[in-house]
Amino acid sequence: MATQTKDKKQAAKDVVDILEEIATLLNCNLTRHQISLCISLIENGVNPEALANVIKDLRAQYPEPELVEDEEQG
Amino acid sequence: MPDNIQQRVEHALSQLVEKVVPAYPEDDDQALQDRLDDAYDFAIGVVQDAGDTPLSPDVNHAHDLIKKKLIRDNLGPEKAMRFSNLYSRLLTLPVLQNKWALLYFLFILSE
């Protein structure tokens, strides 16, 4: 039983590793923790397109502070 | 959507909002909390509105969509080949019910 749990944990870690690398290839700009949260959301039935659009809209509505400074100085 | 799943979604979404929405230097605690609340209300609204929408048929082509994008957006084939390798490994893993939806999510986010 313990081996099964260990295997499942390893598989879950491998999934995050793989999706993290795919996200990097695609320049999605997601941290590992953000990817884990998105996996949980989509595995629990959240629409992937809606989730992606939520992240894009939030990034547009609330840009990172250094981006705001660059725009002010630009 | 059953209650326990709804709670999991709300909890994960609230954490995601906190990780995506930044704090600004001039913020006080209340300003930041108000921003997070607004952002969460927006996010949960979009997610719930899309709740029953059937997945786009493109979901099943997420692999092809990503591969074409990697070839299109990069000079050489290396990234596309790297993705194919990662994709094959992903298929062998016994966890994850919604692999295509996750790949499609990454594709849409990258567009």
UniProtKB/TrEMBL annotation, chain A:
InterPro entries in alphabetical order: MZT1 (IPR022214)
Single GO cellular component term: interphase microtubule organizing center
Cytoplasm among keywords: yes
A single GO BP: mitotic spindle assembly
Superkingdom, natural source: Eukaryota
Keywords, ordered alphabetically: Cytoplasm, Cytoskeleton
Subcellular compartments: Cytoplasm, Cytoskeleton, Microtubule organizing center, Spindle pole body
Principal subcellular localization: cytoplasm
UniProt key word Cytoplasm: yes
Pfam families assigned to the protein according to its UniProt record, in alphabetical order: MOZART1
Family to which the UniProt record says this protein belongs: Belongs to the MOZART1 family.
Function of the protein: Required for gamma-tubulin complex recruitment to the microtubule organizing center (MTOC).
Quaternary structure, from the entry: Part of the gamma-tubulin complex.
Name listed for the protein in its UniProt record: Mitotic-spindle organizing protein 1
